[in-house]
Design a protein that fits this description.
Elements lengths: L6 H6 L15 H36 L3 H4 L1 H11 L8 H5 L7
Helix pairs in contact: 2-4
Length: 102
C-alpha cells in the first residue's frame, strides 16, 4: 500500500515534465522548475540503479555458486539501468534543446 504523501512533499514536487519542452526561458521560475525536474529525474534513475545493484549483491551472496543462473534477471536489469544512471546535470539539455516540431 503506498504511503500518503505529505503536504510539504507535494508542495516541493515538480509540476513540470523533466524536459525543456515549452519552457519560456525569459521566465526564471519556469526555467528553474524545468531544471529541477530534469535533475530529479536523473537522481531517480541513479537511485534505481543503486537499489538494483544492492539487490544483486545480496542475491550473489545468497545464491553462492549458482548466482549466474539465479541472479541473471537482476544482472540484466542493472546493466540496462547503468546506461542512463549517471547524473549529468541540465546544462547540455538546456543549451542544445531543439523543439520536437522541427
Amino acid at each position: 500500500m503506498p504511503t500518503p504523501e505529505s503536504p510539504l512533499f507535494l508542495a516541493r514536487k515538480p509540476k513540470v515534465p523533466p524536459t525543456f519542452d515549452g519552457v519560456n526561458y525569459d521566465n526564471n521560475d519556469e526555467l528553474k522548475a524545468a531544471q529541477d525536474a530534469v535533475l530529479r529525474e536523473q537522481w531517480v534513475r541513479s537511485m534505481m540503479a543503486r537499489l538494483v545493484r544492492e539487490e544483486m549483491g545480496k542475491c550473489y551472496v545468497r545464491e553462492g555458486v549458482n548466482h549466474l543462473e539465479k541472479c541473471g534477471r537482476l544482472r540484466d536489469r542493472y546493466l540496462e539501468l547503468l546506461k542512463e544512471s549517471k547524473v549529468r546535470g541540465y546544462l547540455f539539455e538546456q543549451q542544445n534543446y531543439t523543439p520536437k516540431d522541427a
